[in-house]
């Protein structure tokens, strides 16, 4: 591979600590399994961090931004300039994710990996690999070197967050045209029909939606990406911010940081990361179920259930930020709830309700 990318070493999760947490959870004063997915969070956090009650007070939301050459084909109702305008909105603290991150007590890191905006706004980190991808209907979206560099940006972002003792991460994206790229990546990785993966994104008309599906199908037919080679899929039909999210997921797994996926596009990146490095999967959590039709398909591919069904489709890591407090709540319950022994009782052995 290129630039040392093959040197990735992902430590295994701590099954022993996870087993201890499972025993502890079953001793809490409640019917077995009655806290549902919160119990799974407790156990999986123990496995990832190696701690029974990890301190998740240091949290971060990472949003990766990039533009897409395929917007030349009329697949989005918004001009590509909106990517830069939204980065300015992030900089002013006025986007949805600014407020959601604040509500969750998380820091926000916005990274420009590939926008076409002339100048990256002040608080947005500039790590631009190139100004937007190429039009993948006509040529490869990126070179392999550009894919690798975007992955490096994501890994490095998470490494730096880890150095700041961040213990819980939410990942998302921004980029006009990236639901088209996300659907193309999903199609390339799964082989599913384009129509089952493609939604209306930011709100295209029926005619534009038909054009969007046509563009994606033609691109898949033209490039014929290998579903078992996720870097090739990214190279041919991906996005710079999608590749950066792949790197962020890998980086989180390297540093044993639990990482929350956002919606459709960030989950497409997660599937690419897991196809490339299967050891990433145990560190991932699904936040919500987007109304984008392909999201459920991707979650099924990964074997995850979303925590929320809130009919969201914003992106920006908004859904991932929204569920962050659930993780701290899960740890608080595990740490502070009484156990049956405190009541002089043994834990019940009944079925889950």
Question: What are its keywords?
Answer:
six-stranded parallel beta sheet, 13 helices, alpha/beta, 6 strands, about 350 residues, globular
Structure notes:
One of its GO terms (biological process) is cobalamin biosynthetic process. Pathway: Nucleoside biosynthesis; alpha-ribazole biosynthesis; alpha-ribazole from 5,6-dimethylbenzimidazole: step 1/2. Keywords: Cobalamin biosynthesis, Glycosyltransferase, Transferase. GO terms for molecular function: nicotinate-nucleotide-dimethylbenzimidazole phosphoribosyltransferase activity. This is Nicotinate-nucleotide--dimethylbenzimidazole phosphoribosyltransferase. The chain has helices at residues 15-27, 37-49, 81-92, 96-104, 144-163, 178-190, 194-197, 206-223, 230-237, 240-254, 264-276, 293-302, 318-336; strands spanning 59-66, 106-114, 125-126, 168-174, 259-261, 284-286. It is built from 13 helices and 6 strands. It is globular. Strands 3-2-1-4-5-6 form a 6-stranded parallel sheet, sandwiched between helices. It is α/β, with parallel strands linked by helices and 353 residues long. The chain starts with 14 loop residues before the first helix and ends in a 17-residue tail after the last helix.
């Amino acid at each position: 591979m290129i630039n040392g990318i093959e040197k990735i070493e992902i430590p295994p999760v701590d099954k022993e600590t996870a087993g201890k947490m499972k025993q502890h959870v079953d001793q809490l004063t409640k019917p077995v399994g009655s806290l549902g997915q919160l119990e799974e969070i407790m156990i999986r956090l123990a496995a990832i961090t190696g701690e029974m009650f990890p301190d998740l007070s240091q949290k971060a939301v990472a949003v990766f931004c990039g533009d897409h050459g395929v917007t030349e084909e009329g697949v989005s109702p918004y001009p590509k300039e909106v990517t830069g305008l939204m980065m300015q909105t992030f900089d002013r603290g006025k986007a949805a994710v600014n407020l959601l991150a604040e509500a969750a007590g998380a820091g926000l890191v916005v990274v420009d990996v590939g926008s076409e905006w002339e100048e990256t706004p002040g608080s947005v980190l500039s790590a631009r690999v190139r100004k937007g991808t190429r039009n993948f209907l006509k040529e490869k979206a990126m070179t392999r070197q550009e894919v690798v560099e975007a992955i490096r940006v994501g890994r490095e972002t998470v490494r730096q967050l880890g150095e700041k003792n961040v213990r819980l991460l939410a990942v998302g994206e921004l980029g006009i045209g990236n639901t088209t790229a996300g659907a193309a990546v999903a199609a390339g990785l799964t082989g599913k029909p384009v129509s089952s993966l493609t939604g209306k994104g930011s709100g295209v008309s029926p005619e534009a939606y038909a054009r969007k599906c046509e563009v994606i199908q033609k691109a898949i037919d033209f490039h014929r990406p290998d579903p078992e080679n996720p870097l090739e899929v990214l190279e041919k039909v991906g996005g710079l911010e999608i590749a950066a999210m792949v790197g962020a997921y890998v980086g989180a797994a390297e540093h044993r940081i639990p990482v929350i996926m956002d919606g459709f596009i960030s989950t497409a990146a997660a599937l690419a990361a897991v196809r490339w490095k299967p050891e990433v999967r145990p560190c991932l959590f699904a936040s919500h179920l987007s109304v984008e039709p392909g999201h459920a398909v991707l979650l099924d591919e990964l074997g995850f259930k979303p925590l929320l069904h809130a009919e969201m489709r914003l992106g920006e890591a908004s859904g991932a930020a929204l569920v962050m407090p659930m993780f701290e709540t899960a740890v608080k319950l595990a740490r502070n709830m009484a156990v049956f022994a405190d009541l002089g009782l043994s834990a019940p052995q009944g079925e889950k309700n």
